[in-house]
Amino acid sequence: MKKTLTQEQIAFIETYLIQNKVKYWDVRAELIDHIATQVEEKMSMGVSFDAAMMQVHVSFGNRPQKRKLNKENTQWIFETSIYADHSGFERLIKDKQKQLNIGFRKAFGSTVLKIFKQPKYLLFILLYVFGLYYLESLNFTPKQLKLAVFVPILALSLIPMAYSIFFIGKKRQHLGANLLGVYTMFPLHMFNMLSFMPKSFGLEMTTAGWMVVGFFGLVFGITQYKITTNYISKQKAIYNRWKSV
């Protein structure tokens, strides 16, 4: 007969993960489902809950024992526990981070292509770029043109970053949102790189140059804004479902 875990046992699994340094709730949410399924399967074969937890703990690459000196510091003693080691979970989190980075990069590329296929975004970006040319005709100084380019890019970087930080809270316990917060600054890094490139060759930035920076800045800024807001919205829905169970 298939065994089903109680709410207390599921809560125990979450506490177990927290004590084993799995601090990111998005990682815990995935692991809880996986561990619960594995434990239920083992219990259905007659294994006790505690024994099943130990078997699953070891299956992640965690050691079942740790050694420590006795009180007299004269010999090593070995302690068997599901809290003895969490190195397997550390490797799992690193692998998850790599997967997320790959996923975000793919999402960035596909979202850029979608923006170029949507007339409303292209029209907005082109109007902005030609607006920069118009500002130059009004005798705007190079510093004023730089500011006109910088402010929209800054806003498109800070708004999704603030949204991400607000979502994950002060403890920053969401792996995906933490990583995405770093990506939100990419448009600003791009701005700095392109705006300082002429100076490295002893040249001054021209109006055409600022139009190029503004074009790519808006494209990348809108892209990152869409990726961040879509991702956080999905994660909020997952979190609400997870906590309601």
TrEMBL record:
Transmembrane segments annotated in the record for this chain: 119-135, 147-168, 175-196, 208-227
* Name of the protein described by the UniProt record: Uncharacterized protein
Q: Which domain of life is it from?
A: Bacteria
What keywords would UniProt list here? Membrane, Transmembrane, Transmembrane helix
